[in-house]
């Protein structure tokens, strides 16, 4: 009976589908090769350990114990000590996001140890990225324990190792201070990052389906027969979605400020400009995908792969870019979310201005121009007979 399950018919359907897959190398590669590629690619990029933390050191004591104390930080493998630039303040490199921490050793460091009263140094952290700050903070107890063992004998104090949190006389202590996010409030860190990820993916999806839908419906042929130029088509398709995405960005801003009490310390005009540049780059990326694929299903798949995963894993939202291998640090420069993540957190939490954000602004502008040019060039090839 036709209503009953037939193994013969099921086998025939399976055989037909196998032939279809074998005739479509892209689908075969997508199913077999893509998972391996993504695991290898992101597996090499992701590292939960925060390493090579650029730490500005200011040694006002200039004694042997102070130098040995700083050397313990450098020898740990987590911190890379660098001096402040001439004419700059101690914390200026943290403001410019060129360093993640600062170690300040005050005068009288060695004399305090010799007198048995102990000595304290200040360790200043960039708290705008609270996940990174928490990871750095977890390294300090071990570093301080090693410093007690190495530095105390030089000052004539007791050589026994002291607990990092100990307040015993003669021991070394660190006074930790967080900049930009004093309470390490995770919402101040995650809400701007989530806004970047969600809005970037939404913008890509919005335009990725527009041209592909017209190809599938057959209306693109009529559009290409008109005297409209490729750049005009691009502009006409981007403008409505840019306005729609800008409205979504405004709602996300209000949600962050009113719903989660995320502080805003920068310029609203600068934030609006950076947001529009990021949205334009993301919308152009989606349009390029749509022009290249001409299929809604494929366009959606590529949008998810090129929009969600890089925004989540390679933008600095979860894993610090500075801790990635050199290749992946360079690769992230091609991703608009990486630059907008830096700009968004800088404006929200640090009050960064155009000078501090010159590199992200330039990168977003170049990426937008390149993606628009690539989409227009692909349209031009479609117009040619």
Give the structure's gist in a few sentences.
With 385 residues, the chain is of the alpha/beta class. Helices cover 62% and strands 8% of the residues.
What does this structure look like?
62% of the residues lie in helices and 8% in strands. The protein has 385 residues and is an alpha/beta fold. Strands 2-1-3-4-5 form a 5-stranded mixed β-sheet. Helix 7 runs antiparallel to helix 9. Mean pLDDT is 78; it is low at 157-170.
Q: Give, in order, the helices and strands.
A: HHEHEHEHEHEHHHHHHHH
Roughly how many Å apart are the termini?
A: 53 Å
Rg from Cα = 27 Å
Q: How many strand units?
A: 5
Strand order of the largest sheet: 2-1-3-4-5
Q: Beta-strand percentage?
A: 5-15%
The biggest sheet, with number of strands, parallel, antiparallel or mixed sense and barrel status, is: 5 strands, mixed
Shape: elongated
Give the class from helix and strand content and strand pairing.
alpha/beta
* Poorly predicted residue ranges: 157-170
Query: Helix count?
Result: 14
Question: What tags apply to this protein structure?
Answer:
alpha/beta, 5 strands, elongated
